[in-house]
Amino acid sequence: MKVLIEADGGSRGNPGPAGYGCVVWSADHETVLGEYGASIGIATNNVAEYRGLIAGLEEAGRLGATEVGVSMDSKLVVEQMAGRWKAKHPAMAELLQQARAVASTFDSVTYQWIPRERNSHADRLANEAMDAAAEAPSEAVAVPPAVWTGNQGAPTRMMLLRHGQTEFSRQRRYSGRGNPELTDTGRGQAEAAARHLAQRGGIDAVITSPLRRAHDTATAAARALGLEATVDDDLIETDFGAWEGLTFAEARERDPDLHGNWLRDTSLRPPAGESFDDVQDRVVRLRARIITEHPGQTVLVVSHVTPIKTMLRLALDAGTSILHRLHLDLASLSIAEFYPDGNASVRLVNQTSYLS
Questions:
Q1: pLDDT for the residue numbered 194
Q2: Which of 60, 50, 156, 57 is nearest to 93 (CA)?
C-alpha cells in the first residue's frame, strides 16, 4: 500500500515552545488515513521538523504502508533525508539517523519539498501543538536545561530493566530467541524490581520484549505500577542462530574463526543469526518510536542485555567496544534520557541494590 505523508514542525523562539504535526493521506491525496500533532517542550525548528517526519513515518508503518511519498516545506530535512545534504550538527545527525532507521522499514520512500501553503494541514497541527506548549510552559520546562550540557526541554526518560534469571542465564549460555521461563530466583528478582519501581513511581508506560522472561518481568512491574505492559518486537534479544543454548566455550569450539571475529566486528552474524549492527538498527527505530509516542514521559523498557546495552551506547554516543565492556546484571536497572533537541544523557547504569 502506498501513502503520502505531509509533516511540519516549528518553534516559537528557536529554541522555544515547539511542536510538530503530520498527516498521512491515501495515495490519491483524497482521504486522510491518520493525523497527529504533539508539543515537545523547548526545541528548535529543525528538531521539530524532524520529529514531525518521524511521527509521520511511524503512523504510516502502523497503517501497514509499504511505499511512502513524503512532502515537507523544510528544505533541510528533505535534502538530508534524500542524501544530498550532510547533517553536520550532532543533534541533526542523530535525528537523521533515527528518521532513516524508521524509513528503512518501508520498501521505498521518496522526498519532495513543497511550499508552506501546500503544507497547510500539517502546519495547522504543528501550530496547535505549539499553542499547547506555550499555554503550558511548566510542562515544557519540566526538566530544566542541564547546567553542564545545555540540553533543552523535557526528555523522554527510559528506565531500562533487564529480565530476571532463567536456567540459560544461570548456566551462562547464549540465550537469544529461545524462550526459557524465569527460574524461582528470576521471579523473585522480578518482584523485587517491581516493588522498587512502584516505590519510585512516576512511570507513565511499560513496554516489553515479547519473550517470556522479559514479558513476565514486565508484567510484575506493570501490576505494581497499575499499568498495562505493551509488547514491542524491536525489544527482542539478539538472534544467536546456531549458537543458541551453547556456552561461550562451546560456540568458540564450534566456529573458532567466526566466533573470534564476531567478538571484534559488530557487522558479523552467528550462523543463521543476527549481527549487533542489526540489533542497533531496530533499537534506533524503537527509540524514535518511544520518543514520538511518549514525549517528556518516563517509560519502563523491559528487555535483554544487548538491546539495553545498545540503548545506553546510543545515549552515550559511544563506540562498539562498550557492548563488551559494559556489564549488566540480571534484573538490573539503568536510566537513559533523550531530549527533544537530539541530545541524551545516562543517569544510571546497573542498579541492583533492591535485589539484596
A1: 95
A2: 50
The residue count of the chain comes to 356
CB 294 within 8 Å of CB 156: yes
Q: Quick one: fold of 2-140?
A: Nucleotidyltransferase; domain 5 (3.30.420)
Candidate from 135-149, 174-188, 197-211, 303-317 with smallest mean pLDDT: 135-149
| Spatial contact of 27 and 92, defined as CB atoms under 8 Å apart | no
Q: Which CATH superfamily is domain 156-355 in?
A: Phosphoglycerate mutase-like (3.40.50.1240)
How confident is the model at residue 302, as a pLDDT? 98
Beta strands per DSSP E along the chain: 2-11, 16-26, 32-43, 67-72, 108-113, 156-162, 205-208, 229-231, 298-303, 333-338, 344-351
Q: Phi and psi at residue 55, in whole multiples of 5°?
A: -60, -40
From 49, 58, 94, 163, the catalytic residue:
163
Are 123 and 319 in contact by the 8 Å Cβ rule? The answer is no
Left (φ > 0), alpha (ψ -120 to 50) or beta: where does 49 sit?
alpha
Name the catalytic one among 6, 237, 274, 337. 237
The whole-angstrom separation of Cα 106 and Cα 4 is 13
| Domain map (residue ranges) of the chain | 2-140, 156-355
Q: Which three cell numbers stand for residue 78?
A: 528533505
Active site residue 324: no
Say what the pTM is: 0.68
The per-type count for the chain, helices as H runs and strands as E runs, is 13, 11
30: helix, coil or strand? coil
Which candidate, 187, 188, 220, 182, places its Cα nearest to that of 300? 220
Is 89 marked active-site? no
Q: Which of 101-105, 296-300, 338-342, 345-349 has the lowest mean pLDDT?
A: 338-342
Q: Are 41 and 338 in contact (CB under 8 A)?
A: no
CA distance 307 to 309: 6
Residue 268: what pLDDT? 96
Q: What is the pLDDT of residue 58?
A: 87
